[in-house]
């Protein structure tokens, strides 16, 4: 029953046996800083299959973005270092590839959408130029053809009057439209995996839903694997197939989305769910996980969540919980996941 | 874009009026009687003095004299000195010398400053970067007077004596472009140091920008990420500095022109202040201000070309 998370990735893969498109396996990332070594990612494992959406949840600083940047290969090394782990894309460990080979994947086969499109788009080039650049540089297209492609993509992400707006600059668009442009750019070369790092955080609530819808639709159409990093548990249920909950640079629970919603298997995921405002609890005070996120320079012993965990027992302080396999598709890094599931603890 | 240009042009007018008036007022507010200063120890004939005062409007209030002055300048007449020499004849050829000197300096500044700055930014934290920081610190700390004489002696005199070849002429302008190399460099030194540091900071800042990360995530080659995505953005402050510096350099040419005996406007300015030839002083400074304003105008326009956010304001 007890599995070592560093070897086994099955609990998080939807279809056991089928080679996943992307597999992050026991990934460790650390940053050398003046204060010491920041262990931002400590053994993260997750997989994404074609056509599958994985939502990565977790509070600020839990290592969601760093993991994504490691997959993209855009970490600054140094100060970053990857002392351990594999990132397999179609079975090949990308961490072992040459820079040359890696850059053939980056942007073309694995693409990324960033949080704040205003700062993520270059202010001095037109949006058409920036989208078209993908075709000019990676496909050797002429300026005119690339421009045509840019317009097509802008239409595909439903930017009104794309033909007229292709020569506009990022600052001339609204936030939602800018994020659409960012998405158009990322899907330009039909990537197999798309990573969206909090793609809607910078937007109005109404626009957020539209952007999520667009991402889901694009994914369905092209059968991409989607990694959706988000704080927003509300959208996860609609879009994601499975969830990976991160805490202190580790996955604490990985499971199909409905399992988690119905019955979380880790006190931290439970806390996250309880902190979503619900209609039936209107008027009641919102639940908030007490305490502060852990200091990555000085991680708590045993279970990193123990200082904040309402279910803590003595051995939690000393023993690091492995990712226990609950079922073929589900895992929890809590010694007492069974009691958490049954509701007999606490 | 058209409206932006027009607005900038219109904005330049009050600046021009304000600055020229200020200069005019300061120069004419200098203590002492200019006629008496010209005459030296001798007594000035009161009838002659009165006639001169009349001719040069010395009895009118300052603002009226400024009005006369403006009227003349607009028609290209910078006035005459008390000795009856038209100011424009005194100018002849001198602005070209100073302009050539300043342009040489700006070229040095652009090539060395931007080059060194980019190099340092890309090697940030390593010994090359630290060396650049140390050298630029040295460059700003040495007064032009010292660096001018030292370089003149080392690269001009000693090198010629050692090799027999006159690489860098040390005085005058009779050797064409070569005459300007050494003084141009001396004039540029402090600015080179500033531009180097500005370039370094600016590129380092853009390299941290989100859109640079995006370019990398798009799989763009490193050369393109740097040369297109980062450089284009960090160019904005550099161009601004370079353009504004052209004006500063022309004004700062006084010392360099004196050291290298270049018959430029700086030398003339120095002489005219000494001789209290007010029309010449005001004329020179007015032209310098004009150049400064035009340079800034060009910078503003370049700025708009480089940064679309300004253009569409
Ligand atoms: N360049 C860096 N140098 C040092 N520490 C870093 C660096 N980049 C990230 N970190 C640290 O790594 C940890 C994880 O950061 P990460 O950006 O992955 O968090 P996140 O889960 O994406 O949070 P958020 O929800 O706020 O985006 C943070 O504590 C952060 O301080
Ligand atoms: S292992 Fe212990 S401290 Fe950690 S989440 Fe489970 S009960 Fe809480
Ligand atoms: Mg993040």
Automatic annotation (TrEMBL), chain A:
tRNA-binding listed as a keyword: no
Annotated keywords: ATP-binding, Cell membrane, Membrane, Nucleotide-binding, Transport
GO molecular-function terms, A-Z: ATP binding
Record's bilayer topology term: Peripheral membrane protein
Subcellular location: Cell membrane
Domain (ABC transporter): residue spans on this chain: 22-273
UniProt-listed InterPro entries: AAA+_ATPase, ABC_Ni/Peptide_Import, ABC_transporter-like_ATP-bd, ABC_transporter-like_CS, Oligopep_ABC_C, P-loop_NTPase
Domain of life: Bacteria
Pfam families: ABC_tran, oligo_HPY
Family that this chain belongs to: Belongs to the ABC transporter superfamily.
NCBIfam families from the UniProt entry: oligo_HPY
PANTHER family reported for this sequence: DIPEPTIDE TRANSPORT ATP-BINDING PROTEIN DPPD, OLIGOPEPTIDE TRANSPORT ATP-BINDING PROTEIN APPD
Protein name, as recorded: ABC transporter ATP-binding protein
TrEMBL record, chain B:
Residue ranges crossing the lipid bilayer per the database entry: 12-30, 101-122, 134-157, 177-195, 238-260, 280-306
Pfam families named in the record: BPD_transp_1, BPD_transp_1_N
InterPro entries: BPD_transp_1_N, MetI-like, MetI-like_sf
PROSITE patterns linked: ABC_TM1
Domain of life: Bacteria
Entry keywords, A to Z: Cell membrane, Membrane, Transmembrane, Transmembrane helix, Transport
Residue span, ABC transmembrane type-1 domain: 95-303
Membrane topology: Multi-pass membrane protein
Main location, first listed in the record: membrane
Locations listed in the record: Cell membrane
UniProt family annotation: Belongs to the binding-protein-dependent transport system permease family.
Name of the protein: ABC transporter permease
Organism listed in the record: Sphaerisporangium corydalis
């Amino acid at each position: 029953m007890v599995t070592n998370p560093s070897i086994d990735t099955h609990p998080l893969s939807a279809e056991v046996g089928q080679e996943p498109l992307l597999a992050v396996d026991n990934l460790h990332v650390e940053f050398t800083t003046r204060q010491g070594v920041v262990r931002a990612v400590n053994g993260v494992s997750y997989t994404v299959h074609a056509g599958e959406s994985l939502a990565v949840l977790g509070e600020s600083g839990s290592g969601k973005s760093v993991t994504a940047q490691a997959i993209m290969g855009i970490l600054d090394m140094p100060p970053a270092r990857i002392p351990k782990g594999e990132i397999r894309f179609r079975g090949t460990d990308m961490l072992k590839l040459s820079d040359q080979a890696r850059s053939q994947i980056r942007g073309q086969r694995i693409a990324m959408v960033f949080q704040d499109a205003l700062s993520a788009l270059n202010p001095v080039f037109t949006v058409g130029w920036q989208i078209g650049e993908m075709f000019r540089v990676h496909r050797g297209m002429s300026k005119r053809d690339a421009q045509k492609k840019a317009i097509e993509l802008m239409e595909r992400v439903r930017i009104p009057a794309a033909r007229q707006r292709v020569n506009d600059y990022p600052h001339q668009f609204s936030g939602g439209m800018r994020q659409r442009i960012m998405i158009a750019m990322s899907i330009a070369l039909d990537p197999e995996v798309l990573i969206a790092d909090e793609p809607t955080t910078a937007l109005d609530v109404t626009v957020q839903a539209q952007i999520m819808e667009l991402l889901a639709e694009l994914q369905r159409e092209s059968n991409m694997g989607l990694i959706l990093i988000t704080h927003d548990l509300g959208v996860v249920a609609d879009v994601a197939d499975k969830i990976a909950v991160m805490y202190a640079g580790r996955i604490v629970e990985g499971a199909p989305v409905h399992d988690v919603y119905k019955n979380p298997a880790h006190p931290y995921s439970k806390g996250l769910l309880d902190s979503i405002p619900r209609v039936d609890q209107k008027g009641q005070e919102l639940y908030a996980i007490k305490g502060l996120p852990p200091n990555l320079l000085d991680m708590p012993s045993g279970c990193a969540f123990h200082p904040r965990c309402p279910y803590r027992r003595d051995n939690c302080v000393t023993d690091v919980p492995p990712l226990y396999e609950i079922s073929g598709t589900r895992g929890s890094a809590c010694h007492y996941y069974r009691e958490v599931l049954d509701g007999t603890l606490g | 874009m058209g409206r932006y240009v027009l607005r900038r042009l219109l904005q330049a007018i009050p600046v021009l009026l304000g600055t020229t008036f200020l200069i005019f007022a300061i120069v004419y507010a200098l203590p002492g009687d200019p006629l008496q200063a010209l005459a030296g120890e001798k007594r000035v004939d009161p009838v002659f003095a009165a006639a001169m005062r009349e001719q040069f409007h010395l009895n009118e209030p300052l603002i009226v004299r400024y009005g006369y002055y403006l009227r003349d300048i607009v028609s290209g007449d910078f006035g005459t000195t008390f000795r009856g020499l038209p100011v424009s004849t005194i100018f002849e050829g001198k602005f070209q010398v100073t302009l050539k000197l300043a342009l040489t300096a700006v070229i040095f500044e652009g090539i060395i400053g931007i080059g060194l700055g980019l190099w340092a930014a890309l090697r940030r934290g390593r010994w090359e970067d630290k060396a650049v920081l140390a050298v630029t610190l040295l460059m700003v700390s040495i007064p032009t007077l010292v660096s001018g004489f030292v370089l003149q002696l080392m690269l001009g005199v000693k090198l010629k004596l050692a090799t027999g070849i006159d690489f860098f002429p040390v005085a005058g302008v009779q050797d064409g472009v070569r005459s300007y190399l050494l003084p141009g460099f001396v004039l540029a030194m402090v600015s080179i140091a500033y531009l180097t540091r500005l370039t370094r900071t600016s590129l380092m800042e853009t390299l941290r920008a989100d859109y640079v990360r995006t370019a990398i995530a798009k799989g763009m080659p490193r050369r393109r990420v740097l040369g297109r995505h980062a450089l284009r953005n960090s160019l904005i402050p550099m161009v601004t500095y370079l353009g504004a510096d052209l004006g500063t350099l022309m004004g700062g040419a006084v010392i360099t022109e004196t050291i290298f005996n270049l018959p430029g406007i700086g030398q003339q300015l120095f002489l005219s202040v000494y001789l209290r030839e007010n029309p010449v002083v005001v004329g020179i400074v007015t032209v310098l201000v004009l150049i400064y304003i035009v340079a800034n105008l060009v910078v503003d326009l370049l700025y708009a070309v480089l940064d679309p956010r300004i253009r569409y304001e």
